[in-house]
Structure formats: structure tokens, C-alpha cells
């Protein structure tokens, strides 16, 4: 009978039992062969032998020996350890499966960018509400900024997708046109009552109209400003472009403010102001849903596909 190989005891902590080493041991014990176990684990046999020796050092007893015919002999200690080791692997797999299930059921967050005024746009509201109703484990956080800043954040990965307005000219992203909205003029109600119908821009020739600054959305600005200037309107610029700031500017100056036509129906529009619809089809713009070109992450794809499907149903 061969002498059993000496194994150092207590070199490693038993509390740090490496599951990869245990998996190697169980494979050799079940196969009774280092060669077949290495094939089953898809590793090199010399590396497998090293792992078994590492586990023996950690456990403090010998696991295998070979007889004269080079057959693998499982030691009495290993025979006792084998059932527990098998249970250990099963428990580890159950733990991993449970963790995967919890991960898959956990909330998925989408960071979306949007201009603050778009919160009142019916199309945006319908898409977000419908998407969350269909995908209850998703959570959406909206980050407000103007289109140019949103595209910058999208490109830098700070947000996942964005609602933008106006022409889409960014070469690093792709846009889905969700709808087209008209522009109107915010004026005091007493002036609204005197306005001719249908209302055209010529009624404001020689006057000032306040619009947003070019730097917040150059493409959108350049699609609107020349139309106003051609009608003989002088442009002045808003210091801020939220609805509250527009109302304050109009109250303070009396200057008509270019505003989204849909905003005449918002509940927080004060009674002393009115939004006049303009009979100017060219004064309209796109609401877009934008993602980085080639971004096919599941959450991004889910919202993109839902929006596209909603457009097909509406059509």
C-alpha cells in the first residue's frame, strides 16, 4: 500500500471555502478520473490537479490517491466530505438562481430628458403613462433642460433617452417623431378679445414678440425666427422659458410671447391671459423621442418600441 501524501493543516481559513475548488473536487470524485473531470469542466488537467491540491491545503486532509494501476482512489475523508460538498454546490446554484430572479423582478430605471414645458404635451403624457402601465417594474425619472443641453447629456450617457422639440439635426442620435404641435401667442385676455379671426402674423407687424434664445435650441430657433421677422415682427428674447417665466414676462412688459398652442388648455393658465392660435401652418414643430444611435439596451428598446407602436395605433 502506498503512503498517503502529507497535507499541511490550517494554512487557509475554512470560512473562505472556494466554491470553484469544491466544484473541481466533486467532478473528480464523481468521475473517478482527473482526465474525464477536466474534460467535463473544460479545463486543463494539470490546472485541475493544482486546484485539488489547493483544496486539500485548505481542508487539511488528502482527497485522492492513485493505486498501482493509476486509478483515482477517493480517501475516506473525501467520501465523508463528498455529500456535503454536493449539497454546497446545489445550495450555491439555488442562491444564484434566486438572485437572478430578484434582479429580473427589480425595478428598471430610465433617465429621460425633456424640456419642462413638454410636461403638458398630451402625446408625451400618453406615451409615458401607457408605457408605465404596460411595464410596471420600470421607473422613469425626468431631467428638465432645453434640447441642445439634452442632446449633450444623451451623448455623454447622463440620460438614457430624451424628448426634444424642433428639427432633429444631431448626427450621433436617432429620432422618432411623436407628433407635430402648433405655436401661438400668449397675450392678456383683453387683447385676445380684440384679435381678428382668423389670426395671422400680419396682425402683429411692427410689434415686438418675445421668443426663446437661440442658444437653447438653434435648429428650432432658426426654423421659427425668420417667419416672424418676414412678417415684420421685431424679436425680443425671454430671460427664462418656463411657463411661469413667460407669464411673468408678459405681465411685466405686455409683450406677446410665442408659446405652445396646447398650453391654452393647461389648468394652471391664469384667467387674465389667453393663448391665441395662429393661422400659420409653418409655425409648428416636431416633438421627438431620441436615443443614441445603435443603443439597443432592453429598457431603451422597450420604450422606443412602445412609442412606435402607439404611433401606428393612432394612425
From TrEMBL:
- InterPro entries in the cross-refs: LysR_HTH_N, LysR_subst-bd, WH-like_DNA-bd_sf, WH_DNA-bd_sf
Q: Does the keyword Methyltransferase apply?
A: no
**Pfam families, per the entry:** HTH_1 (PF00126), LysR_substrate (PF03466)
What keywords tag this UniProt record? DNA-binding, Transcription, Transcription regulation
- Domain annotation HTH lysR-type: ranges: 17-74
Q: Name one GO cellular component term.
A: protein-DNA complex
Q: What domain of life does the UniProt record list for this protein's source?
A: Bacteria
Task: State whether keyword Transmembrane helix applies.
Answer: no
Single GO molecular-function term?
Answer: DNA binding
Family assignment? Belongs to the LysR transcriptional regulatory family.
Protein name in UniProt:
LysR family transcriptional regulator
Organism annotation: Sphingobium terrigena
Amino acid at each position: 500500500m502506498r503512503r498517503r501524501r502529507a497535507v499541511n493543516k490550517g494554512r487557509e481559513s475554512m470560512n473562505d471555502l472556494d466554491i470553484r475548488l469544491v466544484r473541481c473536487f466533486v467532478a473528480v470524485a464523481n468521475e473517478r478520473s482527473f482526465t474525464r473531470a477536466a474534460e467535463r469542466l473544460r479545463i486543463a488537467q494539470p490546472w485541475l490537479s493544482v486546484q485539488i491540491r489547493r483544496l486539500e491545503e485548505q481542508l487539511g486532509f488528502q482527497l485522492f490517491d492513485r493505486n498501482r494501476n493509476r486509478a483515482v482512489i477517493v480517501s475516506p475523508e473525501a467520501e465523508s466530505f463528498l455529500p456535503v460538498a454536493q449539497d454546497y454546490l446545489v445550495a450555491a446554484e439555488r442562491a444564484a438562481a434566486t438572485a437572478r430572479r430578484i434582479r429580473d423582478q427589480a425595478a428598471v430605471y430610465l433617465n429621460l430628458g425633456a424640456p419642462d414645458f413638454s410636461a403638458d404635451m398630451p402625446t408625451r403624457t400618453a406615451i409615458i403613462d401607457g408605457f408605465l402601465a404596460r411595464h410596471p417594474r420600470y421607473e422613469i425619472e425626468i431631467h428638465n433642460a432645453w434640447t441642445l443641453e439634452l442632446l449633450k447629456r444623451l451623448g455623454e450617457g447622463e440620460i438614457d433617452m430624451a424628448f426634444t422639440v424642433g428639427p432633429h439635426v444631431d448626427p450621433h442620435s436617432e429620432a422618432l417623431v411623436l407628433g407635430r404641435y402648433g405655436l401661438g401667442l400668449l397675450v392678456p385676455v383683453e387683447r385676445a378679445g380684440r384679435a381678428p379671426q382668423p389670426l395671422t402674423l400680419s396682425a402683429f407687424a411692427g410689434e415686438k414678440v418675445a421668443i426663446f434664445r437661440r442658444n437653447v435650441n438653434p435648429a428650432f430657433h432658426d426654423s421659427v425666427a425668420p417667419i416672424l421677422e418676414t412678417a415684420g415682427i421685431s424679436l425680443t428674447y425671454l430671460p427664462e422659458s418656463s411657463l411661469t417665466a413667460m407669464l411673468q414676462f408678459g405681465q411685466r412688459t405686455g409683450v406677446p410671447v410665442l408659446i405652445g398652442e396646447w398650453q391654452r388648455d393647461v389648468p394652471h393658465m391664469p384667467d387674465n391671459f389667453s393663448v391665441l392660435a395662429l393661422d400659420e401652418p409653418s409655425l409648428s414643430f416636431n416633438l421627438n423621442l431620441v436615443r443614441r444611435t445603435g443603443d439597443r439596451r432592453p429598457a431603451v428598446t422597450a420604450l422606443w418600441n412602445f412609442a412606435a407602436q402607439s404611433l401606428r395605433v393612432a394612425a
